[in-house]
Amino acid sequence: MYWRRRVKCSNLILLIILISASSIFVILKGSLPHISITRIFVDERNMKESRVVAEDVDSVTNGQIGASSYTTAKYGKPVTGKDHLIVYNRVPKCGSRTLLALFEQLKNEKRLATVISTQGFHVPRDLGFAGGQRALKDRINQAIDQIKHLPSAIEGHFRFHSVDRSKNPIYINIIREPLDRMVSQYYYRRFGDGQTSDRFLKKELNRVIDSEYLNQTFNDCVLSERLECSNPRITSFQTSFFCGIHPNCSIPSAWTLAEAKMHVDEDYTVVGVAEDYSGFLSVLEKLMPALFDGIAAKYQIQSKGQNKTESTKSIKLSPPTLEVRKIMRERLDMEYKFYEFVKERFEQLKINLGVMS
Questions:
Q1: Are 159 and 123 within 8 A, CB to CB?
Q2: For residue range 130-141, what is the model confidence (pLDDT) as tens digits?
């Protein structure tokens, strides 16, 4: 009888403990910030496993994988004051040289103290992707540490990564319709544009292309399924750029797309589209008047006076056929999902700010 009473008592105590633990978990679950499951697993498993996790989570959360509930999201938020570091990790062939010319005008007017370019930050090629990205990140951070006065800007073709928060970084960027950007990049690497010197064309651009394919059209490249026009790492270029420097960012997956979207929402003040360059500049004026007031008008003057748009167009560009467009629309599926995501947010931001296209 005594033994039975002890068992019943022990079971009752165990039941009370379990109920208490469950209650504490429910309370904590409601108070803790959302943590992306994929961001935990991707660092601990190989890419094959992380892609499965990403796709599984995507199906459970209705496309919200990687979405954040942080209250510090920067997209579309007005920026006060001037003491900021503008971080412009520009995507190739998205009109970046036009904005850099405007940066130079702001610098000449003493509205920007310094404009640092990362184009000369070469890293050894034998480091591989991950090592090269880490080395480039270190070089960029070292350059930022040397900045003595704000506002300043740092620009270059580098993937998204977090920089020193003490500099009050403001991320901005602009992307382009995926197929148009890819075609422009394809011909630029072969023939340059109106601002490309022969020396740069031969030593920097042509060297990565087999001479056998130097004069091949984009249409032929696509139809022959050459890697330059079919490699998933190339057909997901813009998405990977915003995903960041993690090695898995170069492998297209639901996780890659989710990370890119999250960085747009959480880290960038604005990401525009090249098809509406004037609208992008007007948004910069609205969100950061202390830094960019009047920049849209400068752009209009610059465009008329120097014809910059024509001089930065790729030479000998042959437009893709309808057949090739259909093929590439499928290959660029993830790029288009990211592009439409960015474009939708940008259009809504313009409406919110009263910016007309």
A1: no
A2: 788 889 999 999
Of the candidates 164, 327, 169, 341, the one whose C-alpha atom is nearest the C-alpha of residue 243 is 341
Q: Which residues contact 233 (CB under 8 A, 6 or more apart)?
A: 240, 250, 251, 252
Structure tokens at 66: 């990687």
CA distances in angstroms from 76 to 124, 126, 352, listed in the order given:
37, 40, 9
Q: How far apart are CA 243 and CA 136, in angstroms?
A: 16
The three-state (H, E, C) secondary structure of 121-169, written as one string:
CCCCHHHHHHHHHHHHHHHHHHHHHCCCCCCEEEECCCCCCCCCHHHCE
Helix (H) or strand (E) holding 269: strand 268-273
For residue 10, pLDDT over 70 is answered with: no
And the tokens for 142?
């070292």
Residue positions counted in the chain: 357
φ, ψ (nearest 5 deg) of residue 115: -125, 110
Handedness of CA 328, 336, 40, 244 (dihedral sign): positive
> Is 182 exposed, middle or buried, given 0-12, 13-18 or 19+ CB atoms closer than 10 A?
buried
Which tens digits make up the pLDDT trace of 261-314?
Answer: 999 999 999 999 999 999 999 999 999 999 999 999 999 888 776 555 455 566
Cα angle 339, 116, 298 (rounded to 5 degrees) comes to 65
| CA–CA gap between residue 12 and residue 352 (Å, rounded) | 59
Q: In what order do the strands lie in the sheet with 152-155?
A: 114-117, 152-155, 85-88, 169-175, 268-273
Q: Residue 272 and residue 270: Cα distance in Å, rounded? A: 6
Residue 194's pLDDT is what?
A: 66
Strands 85-88, 114-117: pairing kind: unpaired
